[in-house]
Amino acid sequence: MKIAFFDTKSYWKDSFGPLAAKYGFEITFFNERLTPATAKLAAGHDATCSFVNDEVPAEVVRELKNLGIKVLLLRCAGFDSVDLEVAKECGLPVLRVPAYSPESVAEQGAALLMAINRKCHLAYERTTKFNFDIAGLTGIALVGKTAGVIGTGKIGQCMINILKGYGMNIIAYDAFPNPNLGLEYVTLDELYARADVISLHCPLMPATRHMIDKDAIAKMKDGVILINVARGGLVDSEALADAVEAGKFRGVGMDVCEKEHEYFFEDRSNLTQHDPTLKRLLSNDKVLISGHQAFLTVEALDAIATITLDNAKAFAEGKELVNEVK
Ligand code: NAD
């Protein structure tokens, strides 16, 4: 099998390169993201391998089909980048990595929570300049506070375990509550009203796009901390920037954001003009943004490579496609 690998970075080559040889697969590593403009690079391959910020809308799916691509491999859990209807129409299976290291993703959420609450980013800025003044760095003790977790799947459950370790009380919302978790499920409105920390762990889809909008933010407690390591589109960033500037939040920690397609995984420091909303968020010290790195652990990278190539092998051998997105 020949795989056209898009949006290549050194850490992807390190994890996929040696392993692909063991599977007997040939990988062409393209630096380009998969987009309508770059889809033609897939000519001569059997499969594409794409990541979260590659774009696989209807036109790309159809072009890939015409180029002879037989299967779409996603090296991520989320599948919001692909037009699934059209992939189905074209007979192109979409195979993903439903879970690789949910702990790694939740740990990034916890890292952002601790850093933004205890203002580690501001402390670092000061101490690296030999400024050891701690005025303005007051945080809150999380013990005894209430965390509202939205989405109680694999990553949400890992986050809950971590938050319980901090001594927090957990309330949760899920469109499909899991009775086996022994959690206190509440409505979204109740979660907004009670939570001191809100952490998002549900998928991005039409029903959840901008679920955190102006109205939802207005229902939250003043001084709430919002953590998003799920998908940027869950939050209306304009409304978020307005609320941050109005002093609504104690802090916001994000590993994802709406405009990340234009920025993440690249050094964009040379651009002369920036997205105004992202700029507003980044210039406020109540906001800490990491560039979609929650998956970036040794364990997660190994698991992503193994499961992606297992998916490709199952397809090549006509076996059951256990990780097909239906
Ligand atoms: P999962 O499928 O195990 O859990 C998702 C949960 O969300 C499920 O319990 C589901 O019932 C719930 N849900 C579905 N619709 C909902 C709705 N409308 N409102 C509330 N809850 C709803 O998925 P997971 O592995 O826990 O991953 C969650 C999300 O995290 C993924 O969809 C992905 O977008 C994101 N993610 C981000 C990174 C990163 O690097 N930042 C890495 C992996 C996954």
Q: Can you describe what's shown?
A:
Helix 3 links the parallel strand 4 and strand 5. The relative contact order is 0.14. Helix 1 runs parallel beside helix 12. The chain has two domains: about 1-100 and about 295-315, 3-Layer(aba) Sandwich (Rossmann fold); about 100-290, 3-Layer(aba) Sandwich (Rossmann fold). It has helices at about 10-25, 60-65, 85-90, 100-115, 120-125, 155-165, 190-195, 215-220, 235-245, 260-265, 275-280, 300-315; strands at about 1-5, 25-30, 45-50, 70-75, 95, 145-150, 170-175, 195-200, 225-230, 250-255, 285-290. The longest helix is centred in the last third of the chain and has 19 residues, at about 300-315. With about 325 residues, the protein is an alpha/beta fold. The chain is globular and about 60 Å long. Bound molecules: nicotinamide-adenine-dinucleotide.
Oligomer: single chain
Average residue pLDDT = 97
Give the helices and strands as they follow along the chain. Answer: EHEEHEHEHHEHEHEHEHEHHEH
How can the largest sheet be summarized? 6 strands, parallel
- CATH class group of the largest domain: Alpha Beta
Q: Give the helix/strand class.
A: alpha/beta
Bound molecules: nicotinamide-adenine-dinucleotide
Residue ranges: pLDDT <50 for 5 or more in a row?
none
Any idea what the shape is? globular
Based on CA atoms alone, the radius of gyration comes out at 21 Å
Spatial order of the strands forming the largest sheet: 7-6-8-9-10-11
CATH topology of the largest domain: Rossmann fold
